[in-house]
TrEMBL record:
One of its GO terms (cellular component) is membrane. Its main location: membrane. Keywords: Membrane, Transmembrane, Transmembrane helix. The keyword Electron transport does not apply. InterPro entries: Marvel (IPR008253). It comes from the Eukaryota. Residues 8-131 form the MARVEL domain. It is found in: Membrane. The chain crosses the membrane at residues 12-32, 44-66, 73-93, 113-133. It is a multi-pass membrane protein. This is MARVEL domain-containing protein. The keyword Transmembrane helix applies.
Length: 157
């Protein structure tokens, strides 16, 4: 399935991942509050790095430049795992944050922004996961592997 819009979505996913990395790094670097020691914030820092430097570059570049690395089961698996990671991350952080009327300092505001960008990342990965799973189902339904073996068989052997 050739989807040219998917590359634009990948760029947005990388940009949002970098924003999450920057904001969580800011929160972790502020040693004056307890958010800098939060496991949820550390998890979101990992998740931003995972998205911006590992998963999205693989998902965007492997089908184009390295087709042997873009296995038909690996692409949907990476999509599903990353989507679940983002869902867990932004829900966990949103549950820990105080209500907006009590959030008057910069690290709390940064974490509110991280929660919003995490929700956007989850939505983006939900959309791309849907298309990856649909592509996998269409690939299995057409029986491409069966036609490959049928054309590659040596009739005289």
């Amino acid at each position: 399935m050739n989807l040219p819009w998917i590359q634009a979505v990948r760029i947005v996913q990388i940009i949002f991942g970098l924003i999450v990395v920057a904001l969580t790094a800011y929160v972790i670097s502020s040693f004056y509050d307890w958010w800098s020691l939060s496991d949820t914030v550390n998890y979101l820092l990992f998740l931003g790095c995972w998205t911006a430097f590992v998963a999205t570059p693989y998902l965007g570049a492997a089908p184009i430049f390295f087709p042997r690395l873009a296995h038909r089961f690996v692409i949907p698996a990476v999509e599903i795992i990353t989507m679940i990671f983002w869902f867990a991350g932004f829900i966990a952080l949103g549950a820990e944050l105080p209500p907006p009327r009590y959030c008057h300092y910069s690290t709390c505001r940064a974490l509110q922004a991280v929660t919003v960008f995490g929700a956007f990342e989850w939505v983006l990965f939900s959309v791309t996961t849907y298309f990856a799973v649909v592509d996998l189902m269409n690939h299995r339904r057409t029986g491409e592997s069966a036609t490959k073996t049928q054309h590659n068989a040596h009739l005289g052997v």
